[in-house]
Write a structure and sequence with these properties.
The complex is a heterodimer of chains A (153) and B (178). Chain A has 153 residues and is α+β, with helices and mostly antiparallel strands. Chain A has helices spanning 8-16, 38-45, 62-80, 103-112, and strands at residues 22-24, 33-35, 88-92, 95-100, 120-124, 136-137. Classes of the chains: A alpha+beta (153), B mainly beta (178).
């Protein structure tokens, strides 16, 4: 990207606009330009959430993944109320089905509404280091779980 | 509620079989009986087969099972358990599938299932289904499943027995006394 240094007068005009976009007119050119702050430009370059691939390589069905995203987005708010800790919560895509002491009640509600099994997520409300779709590193199964003491036999 | 009552484990290896397939229980392995169902099965279905699972408190996940063990032993086609995540084990990605586990009470002093209605284990992160070439010899019930379901495990080393129960007024009393 080319860099153009503005005159002191132009710089003062930008400062007075306090980050608002400024229309730039190039004498003799028909094309109009808009000057925006760098952080705003970076945001404008980000793809819209709806344009993100809904089905990443994880192989999680889209309905479950969207439900997990809704849960992950709400988790800080859910954790803010200590009464929620250890409770179960269920999402169907963006919709929170409910909060209950066990998953039975929530799944029964999903069944009552006819929500397919690959369209909802039930999770326990507790602090989590990773979103549900991110792989957690797990301790390897011990060698005693395999035939001759190795995982490759 | 009592789930495992004086469940014995042996100081020597022993043999067992599931659907005609033989397996070995190694010395000092605790084996419980488990059934696997789809997550949305909320009432016990007595047609579900029960299969052996090693209770391993050193395992930091809920439940691990091989793909063939799931289909041939537990009678669950993988297609009926939607994918809900992934774990990473030594760089290998293992898929997690939504499921419900049923832990069978044993006949006291024996490893056999008692025949009463099993205890429902809710698994919020899914069960790990290993490809056959990386699967454990027997399914593994890990510490996270016991913790998620708030169970109390007691090991009686002198008698080589295990007790497992869900918390009730007695466990609260014991906790208060100690």
């Amino acid at each position: 990207m080319a860099i153009v240094e503005l005159t002191a007068e132009q710089a003062l005009t930008i400062r007075n606009q306090e980050g608002k976009p400024i229309e730039v007119v190039v004498p003799g050119a028909r094309q109009r330009y808009v000057l925006v702050a760098q952080d705003l430009f970076a945001k404008m370059c980000l793809p819209d959430e709806k344009d993100l691939p809904p089905f990443p390589a994880s192989g999680i069905p889209e309905g479950i993944l969207l439900s997990q995203r809704a849960f992950w987005k709400d988790l800080p708010e859910l954790l803010a109320d200590r009464r929620n800790h250890g409770q179960w919560v269920c999402y169907h895509r963006d919709e929170r089905i409910g909060i209950a002491a066990s998953d039975d009640v929530l799944i029964r509600e999903c069944l009552r509404r006819g929500i397919p099994m690959d369209e909802y997520e039930v999770a326990i409300i507790r602090p989590r280091a990773l979103p549900p779709w991110e792989p957690e590193e797990i301790e390897s199964l011990g060698p005693w779980h395999f035939h001759d003491g190795t995982a490759n036999s | 509620m009592k789930i495992l009552t004086r469940l014995p484990y042996q100081a020597t290896s022993s043999a067992g079989s599931v659907h005609g397939e033989n397996f070995t229980v190694k010395a000092f392995q605790i084996v419980a009986r488990i059934s696997v169902s789809a997550r949305q099965v909320l009432d016990w279905d007595s047609r579900l087969p029960n299969i052996p699972a090693v209770l391993d408190t050193g395992n930091n996940y809920h439940f691990a099972i091989g793909e063939s063990q799931l289909t041939r032993w537990a009678g669950m086609p993988l297609s009926s358990l939607p994918r809900v995540g992934t774990i990473s084990e030594r760089g290998n990605r293992i898929p997690l599938h939504a499921a419900r586990l049923w832990l069978h009470p044993n006949v006291a002093h024996h490893t056999a299932a008692e025949g009463s209605e099993p205890f429902q284990l809710s698994i919020d992160e899914g069960i790990a289904v290993y490809p056959d070439q990386a699967a454990p010899r027997l399914p593994v019930l890990g510490l996270r499943a016991l913790t998620t379901n708030r169970l109390q495990l007691l090991l009686d080393a002198d008698n080589r027995q295990v007790h497992l129960r869900s918390p009730d007024w007695r466990t609260r009393l014991v906790r208060w006394i100690s």
